[in-house]
Design brief:
There is one protein chain. The strands form three sheets. The protein has a five-stranded mixed β-sheet, with helices on both faces. A three-stranded antiparallel β-sheet has the order 1-2-3. A two-stranded antiparallel ribbon has the order 6-7. The longest helix has about 35 residues. Helix content is about 50%, strand content about 15%. The radius of gyration is 33 Å and the shape is elongated. By secondary structure, it is of the alpha+beta class.
């Protein structure tokens, strides 16, 4: 092993020196691309050499394998795996485990490689994080240069599990919390549309220039979960992150849908606020044929005058001839009356505005529905949870990619010591022992030189 490592290290050094020693001036971009190519290739060769020699150490550890009942089946089986440095190829030995009655590659188990895995864990994490923003195909292209199929990227996303943001070390003390609840409509592969809910918890809005920014937003989303599950998750986050004894009010902003109102049963000190986007949208749709009525309807809602609102809408219905339009106006009237308390609160409390549509656009729509695509149920569930997690400040880790791992194989102490000895001996070949580089022939020089060459001639 030491000879091979020395040779590869020397080849790498010569390659770098020859690059800079050429009869031309190297520009920065050329240095970056060429040296990265050289370095990545060198690291891949070193990793491959290390793995193959580790495999030989396992093979040579006959007593250790004998105790475990493991015998050699065949040698030199090739394997290829994509790493952050590129594609690595190496060979290893195939074994038969008599006790477990199964065939296995002990090298794979020693270094933590999954069976049939095509990418390392680090690459898998990079692929998943990239796929949260871009298509599976583009993620493969940007991270691996297209060496990995879009199917592999999709499979990695579907492995995600236990994506949870860690709570602060100490509970926060705030008087008011805001929650925006809305939904995105996503096209499925079977031609149907799926509703994906989103719950966003934040501490208010700060102004940065002319734009508003939510303070410490935490997003919760999933496909296929019941509303109670989502609101329980939101409640758990609030109770874990904030001291509810100091909390005075939670304003729940939404369009008044039934699944949103369920949240009032789970959240402490919560009041519903009909968000202005949906309120304005409903007014514009109802008065489409009579825009001159909008001013008085807006005025009645603004001051909280329910009688004036009913009177204005009744006049609107009376002056509308189309039955279809009349039904639309009646539905609008019913919608406003059913959510009157959630509208009236604007004139009673400083409940602030909301960003329901902005949250849905940023967290969900930008990846799920802004481009023509069809989702599977499994893929949609994984992606919505991933988007909510990353939008809340989370980072994907290897532990999130759940896999059924085989029990690791431990190389015996003798085998490990042999590997360490070879590596240490390799270091000595680089002339990094000062006394050997001074050129002065003294008894200690002869002794160390003999050890270095393995001749032991003193």
């Amino acid at each position: 092993m030491n000879t091979i490592l020395l040779q590869k290290c020397q080849e790498f050094i010569d390659q770098i020196i020859n690059f800079f020693a050429a009869d031309e001036i190297r520009v920065i971009e050329e240095m970056e691309t060429t040296l990265k190519e050289y370095t990545d290739g060198f690291i891949l060769e070193m990793m491959s050499t290390y793995l193959e020699n580790l495999d030989k150490a396992i093979e040579a550890d006959k007593s250790g394998r004998r105790q475990k009942g493991i015998v050699i089946e065949r040698k030199n089986d090739n394997r290829e795996i994509f790493t952050v440095f590129g594609t690595m190829q190496f060979s290893r030995t195939y074994y038969y485990d008599k006790r477990q009655q199964e065939y296995t590659y002990l090298l794979d188990r020693v270094v933590g490689l999954e069976r049939n895995e095509r990418v390392t864990g680090t690459v898998a994490v990079n692929l998943v994080e990239h796929a949260s923003k871009y298509s599976y195909a583009k993620s493969s292209h940007n991270i691996t240069g297209g060496a990995i199929s879009r199917q592999t990227v999709m499979n990695k996303v579907r492995l995600l599990d236990n994506l949870k943001i860690e709570n602060s070390k100490e509970k926060k003390i705030v008087k008011v919390l805001h929650i925006d609840a809305d939904e995105d409509h996503v096209a499925m592969q079977d031609g149907s549309n799926a509703v994906v809910p989103l719950i966003s918890v934040y501490e208010g809005i700060r102004r940065i220039g002319g734009r508003g920014q939510c303070i410490n937003p935490h997003h919760i989303s999933s496909y296929g979960k019941e509303p109670e599950e989502l609101w329980l998750e939101a409640a758990n986050w609030i109770y874990s992150e904030y001291d509810v004894n100091f909390l005075e009010r939670i304003y729940l902003h939404g369009d008044g849908a039934q699944w949103i109102k369920v949240g009032l049963d789970w959240l402490p000190k919560a009041k519903l606020v009909l968000d202005k986007y949906h309120l304005n949208k409903s007014i514009l749709q109802a008065t489409g044929g009579h825009p001159e009525r909008r001013r008085e309807i807006y005025a009645a809602i603004r001051i909280g005058d329910l009688k004036s609102f009913k009177r204005s809408v009744s006049e609107l219905i009376k002056n509308t001839k189309s039955e279809k339009e009349q039904k639309k106006i009646k539905d609008f009237k019913k919608y406003i009356i059913n959510n009157w308390q959630a509208i009236e609160i604007y004139s009673q409390e400083n409940c602030g505005g909301s960003g329901t549509e902005g949250h849905v656009s940023h967290v969900l729509s930008s990846r799920l529905s802004s481009r023509p695509m069809g989702w599977s149920r499994k893929g949609l569930k994984a992606m919505t949870e991933l988007r909510a997690y990353i939008s809340s400040g989370g980072r994907v880790k290897l532990e999130h990619l759940k896999q059924t791992k085989k029990k690791a194989y431990n190389l015996s102490k003798a085998g490990t010591a042999k590997m360490q000895k070879m590596l240490k001996h390799t270091q000595e070949q680089f002339n990094n022992i000062t006394i050997l580089n001074r050129g002065k022939v003294i008894p200690m020089f002869r002794c160390l030189k003999g050890l270095q060459k393995g001749s032991f001639e003193f």
